[in-house]
Specification:
There is one protein chain. Strand 5 (about 125) and strand 6 (about 130-135) form a beta hairpin. The chain is of the alpha/beta class and about 210 residues long. Helix 1 crosses helix 9 (about 195-210) and helix 6 (about 115-120) packs across helix 7 (about 160-175). It contains 9 helices and 8 strands. The protein is about 50% helix and about 15% strand. The strands form 2 sheets. It has a 5-stranded parallel β-sheet, sandwiched between helices. A 3-stranded antiparallel β-sheet has the order 6-5-7. The chain starts with a strand and ends with a helix. It is globular, with a radius of gyration of 16 Å. It has a domain at about 1-25 and about 80-110 and about 175-210: 3-Layer(aba) Sandwich (Rossmann fold). The protein binds adenosine monophosphate. The site of adenosine monophosphate (AMP) has 17 residues, from helix 2 and helix 3. Adenosine monophosphate (AMP) binds next to helix 2 and helix 3.
């Protein structure tokens, strides 16, 4: 099964992707994680992407499409995959179609902007494994230390208030049109993001199984 998780940055796509990936035994692919890894390792891709990411802009389509194409060619994607953070523009969605990828379902996790701002400004992520926390809603057991791997938890540069505003603006301008794009193709289901992650997961799984 090929799935897309759509939604504003911080709506909880990554968390849902992890759960579904365990449940369906298919990989979750986050272009954001691939790009952050490249930035961390100072690769050519990372050097290209860093400025865009830190300012809250999107990395150019041709760069991200290339990354995605290589990643889904992997052996582990043979039985399907979950896309988290791709596509983010209509040309990216069209590129998927051109690659011959058939998308079974698109789940939009909907969270209002005010909530997104609260969530992202308190978000902390593990530098080592990428696990996600929130200072108020989901703190790590020891402040600054990842529960899963003991790595250091930090605030992402793009989770600063001004950058959050820019990411939301970019989301509404460039990514939100994908809702219509997939609704027209009969693929879209909207799930309202709940206070409790487990409640959102129930709704997400129900939407996938429907
Ligand atoms: P994310 O972790 O999904 O919020 O992604 C972090 C940042 O990586 C975004 O704000 C963009 O700068 C970049 N990025 C991730 N995925 C894409 C994509 N599909 N298209 C363009 N830029 C992307």
């Amino acid at each position: 099964m090929n799935l897309i998780l759509l939604g504003a940055p911080g709506a909880g796509k990554g968390t849902q992707a992890e759960v579904i990936c365990d449940k369906l035994q298919i990989p979750a692919i986050s272009t954001g994680n691939i790009l952050r890894e490249a930035v961390k390792n100072g690769t050519e891709l990372g050097i290209k992407a860093k400025g865009y990411m830190e300012s809250g802009a999107l990395v150019p389509d041709e760069v991200v499409i290339g990354i995605l194409k290589d990643r889904i060619a992997g052996d582990d994607c043979k039985n399907g995959f979950i896309l988290d953070g791709f596509p983010r523009t209509v040309p990216q969605a069209e590129a998927l179609e051109k690659m011959g990828v058939v998308i079974d379902k698109v789940i939009e996790i909907f969270v209002p902007d005010e909530k997104i701002e609260q969530r992202l400004s308190g978000r902390r992520v593990c530098e080592a494994c990428g696990a996600s926390y929130h200072v108020d809603y989901k703190p790590s057991k020891v402040d600054g230390v990842c529960d899963k791997c003991g790595g250091k938890t930090v605030q992402r540069k793009d989770d600063q208030p001004e950058t959050i505003k820019e990411r939301l603006r970019v989301y509404h301008e460039q990514t939100a049109p994908l809702k219509d794009y997939y609704a027209k193709r009969g693929k879209l289901t909207v799930v309202e993001g709940q206070e409790e992650v487990a409640d959102t997961t129930k709704l997400t799984l129900k939407a996938i199984e429907a």
